[in-house]
Design goal:
By secondary structure, this protein is an alpha+beta fold. The protein has two domains: 79 residues, Glutaredoxin (3-Layer(aba) Sandwich); 114 residues, Up-down Bundle (Glutathione S-transferase Yfyf (Class Pi), Chain A, domain 2). Helices cover 52% and strands 8% of the residues. It contains nine helices and four strands, in the order E-H-E-H-E-E-H-H-H-H-H-H-H. Helix 1 links the parallel strand 1 and strand 2. Helix 4 runs antiparallel to helix 6, helix 4 runs parallel beside helix 7 and helix 7 crosses helix 8. Bound molecules: glutathione. Glutathione (GSH) binds next to helix 1, helix 3 and helix 5.
Length: 215
Amino acid sequence: MSEIRLHSYFRSSTSVRVRVALAMKGLSYDYVAWNLRTGGHRSPDYLAINPQGVVPALEIDGLILTQSLPIIEYLEERFPDPALLPSDSAGRARVRALAAMIACDVHPLNNLRVLRHLETTFGADAEAQATWFRHWARATLDPMEKLLASAPQTGAFCHGERPGLADLCLFAQLLNNRRFGLLDTEWPTLARIYAACMEIPAFRAARPEEQPDAA
Ligand SMILES: N[C@@H](CCC(=O)N[C@@H](CS)C(=O)NCC(=O)O)C(=O)O
């Protein structure tokens, strides 16, 4: 039995991704909360775990892993059942591309440190920040909707009939979007996949409001 500790913040969508993966794979873990609003992730204690000062970080059997997607890939390799990636190369490339659309092209733009920089350097208030983020979210989620709606590989989930890496990222991002006034109804296929994820206990349990540090 592995000893696992997840460094997390209830509202962090990158932590949501890892929480879903851990739950799907039936792995139990200790939850260590770092409050991003009060700068807990910039404390010397946390920087000693992850010098980048972002969550999540995963400690497993003495190893410290950072970056949500590599953490999930590590879990996938060590605990392959149930699989979060397809068995064929083309399928894996498609799922990783969908995950990257969220993880590389959407999520970084709603990150706390990015929004704070907009405020302190350019004087953007909360509404200006939200308008800015909505623009960039749509720039990726609009084509993602088209891509998913038209591809034969799309099923109940992003790829086929079982949830995987792309669904973890999409689910977490749609949760985040609400804080910026973006409604899932803009993207019917994404909304349908989100609803399918919500049927699964591992996804529901990973939501911010279910975490011990939920405020
Ligand atoms: N690419 C990283 C991003 C990690 C990240 O930026 N996490 C956010 C929370 S979702 C964070 O810690 N933000 C702190 C800050 O912006 O100051 C990953 O996927 O793990």
